[in-house]
Design brief:
mainly beta; 3-stranded antiparallel sheet; binds FE2/S2 (inorganic) cluster
């Protein structure tokens, strides 16, 4: 089955080096802007559900605002324990709009 592509934001809604919480087909995602590219993960931190889209982004690493677990937004891997992952979704830009592909 081909993935469902959902528009989640416009380019400019997410400043470089920041994240936002967005909705896609009833799912809450975190959308990050790193060096002109966009990355989407589940918004809920796998630890206890903290909002990753509200965390501080440094390079490709977001710190959960609740207990500061750190996640690589390009892979979903936990920085300290890469065996622990948060789901990631491909994000693409077309015509100034950002789309996320849900599997
Ligand atoms: S909920 Fe994210 S680190 Fe605890």
């Amino acid at each position: 089955m081909s993935p469902t592509r959902i528009r989640v934001a416009s380019v400019g809604d997410v400043p470089p080096g920041e994240g936002r919480v967005v909705e896609a087909a009833g799912r809450t995602l975190a959308l990050f802007h790193v060096d002109g590219r966009y990355y989407a993960t589940d918004n809920a931190c796998p630890h206890r559900g903290g909002p990753l889209g509200e965390g501080d982004l440094e390079g490709t690493v977001v710190s959960c605002p609740w207990h500061a677990w750190r996640w690589d937004v390009t892979t979903g891997a936990n920085v300290n324990n890469p065996a622990v992952r948060t789901p990631c979704f491909p994000a693409v830009v077309e015509g100034g709009e950002i789309f996320v592909e849900l599997g």
